[in-house]
């Protein structure tokens, strides 16, 4: 009788364990978003040291294009802005430094991304030596700090005109000139990391809303309130568009 009992118990144990499946592994959330910028001139890829026709019909070559981004935030489905504080990008076309990783991205459904070209006044006039050498705001790293005046150059555009081989140097700065962007784009964040691709159209800096002519409007600026600075900053307000936001 005992043998029959143990046989039945064994059969029950085998059949019950065979029907059990191990629990699936718990997926770890990755709360990051890679952020890559493609630089364009019109509809073509932008490259330094190549000739471009400005909207003013001036032929030029660019030798430098670099800038600072800050104040990143996400816009959730209800319109609430989720700040991603303390994250910056030093973008430089020459060194192909056009990528960063945004952290602390919460799960959710979103309708857009916001950020700024430039810095707020406190950050702009803070102590630049507080940053590690590889930080985006370290003067050693970005060469955009105005040590002689204080504050940062928000965008540096340099090159030469082809017709007369004259240099143009636009060092655009001033906390009051910070350019804010709020770009609509629907996407959702789950457990996986995301990858956002943005397009920056450099041609727009010289044509919209004001047509900029280097010969007549000015070939340089190192001031925060002159007409060259104000006009070029004003033209930057629509340089960015979101190309895609996808799971990495």
Largest beta-sheet details: 9 strands, mixed
Class by alpha and beta content:
alpha+beta
Beta-strand content: 35-45%
SSE string, helices as H and strands as E = HEEEEEEEEHHEEEEHEHE
**Ends: how far apart?**
63 Å
Number of helices: 5
Low-pLDDT runs: none
Give the beta-strand count: 14
Integer-rounded radius of gyration: 26 Å
* Count of distinct structural domains: 1
The overall pLDDT average reads 91
The percent of residues in helical segments reads 10-25%
Walkthrough of the structure:
The chain is of the alpha+beta class. It has one domain. It has helices at residues 2-18, 121-124, 139-142, 214-217, 227-235; strands at 32-41, 44-45, 51-53, 59-76, 81-83, 89-92, 99-103, 108-117, 153-161, 167-173, 179-189, 194-201, 220-221, 240-247. The strands form two sheets. Strands 3, 4, 5, 6, 8, 9, 10, 11 and 13 form a nine-stranded mixed β-sheet that branches. Strands 1, 2, 7, 12 and 14 form a five-stranded mixed β-sheet that branches. The N and C termini lie far apart (63 Å). 24% of the residues are buried.
List the topology elements.
Elements: H1 2-18, E1 32-41, E2 44-45, E3 51-53, E4 59-76, E5 81-83, E6 89-92, E7 99-103, E8 108-117, H2 121-124, H3 139-142, E9 153-161, E10 167-173, E11 179-189, E12 194-201, H4 214-217, E13 220-221, H5 227-235, E14 240-247
Parallel strand pairs: 1-12, 10-13
Antiparallel strand pairs: 1-2, 1-7, 3-4, 4-5, 4-6, 4-8, 4-9, 8-11, 9-10, 12-14
């Amino acid at each position: 009788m005992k043998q029959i009992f143990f046989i039945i118990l064994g059969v029950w144990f085998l059949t019950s364990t065979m029907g059990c499946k191990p629990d699936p592994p718990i997926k770890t959330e990755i709360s990051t978003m890679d952020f890559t910028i493609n630089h364009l001139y019109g509809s073509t890829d932008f490259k330094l040291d190549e000739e471009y026709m400005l909207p003013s019909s001036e032929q030029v070559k660019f030798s430098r294009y670099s800038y600072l981004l800050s104040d990143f935030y996400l816009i959730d489905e209800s319109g609430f802005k989720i700040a991603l504080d303390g994250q910056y990008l030093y973008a430089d076309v020459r060194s192909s430094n056009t990528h960063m990783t945004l952290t602390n991205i919460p799960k959710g459904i979103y309708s857009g991304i916001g950020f700024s070209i430039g810095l707020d006044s406190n950050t702009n006039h803070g102590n630049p030596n507080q940053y590690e050498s590889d930080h985006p705001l370290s003067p050693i790293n970005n060469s955009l700090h105005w040590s002689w005046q204080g504050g940062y150059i928000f965008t540096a555009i340099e090159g030469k005109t082809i017709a007369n081989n004259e240099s143009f140097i636009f060092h655009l700065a001033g906390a009051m000139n910070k350019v804010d962007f709020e770009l609509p784009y629907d996407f959702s964040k789950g457990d996986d990391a995301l990858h956002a691709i943005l397009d920056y159209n450099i041609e727009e800096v010289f044509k919209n809303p004001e047509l900029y002519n280097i010969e007549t409007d000015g070939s340089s600026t190192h001031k925060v309130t002159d007409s060259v600075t104000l006009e070029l900053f004003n033209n930057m307000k629509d340089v960015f568009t979101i190309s895609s936001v996808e799971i990495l």
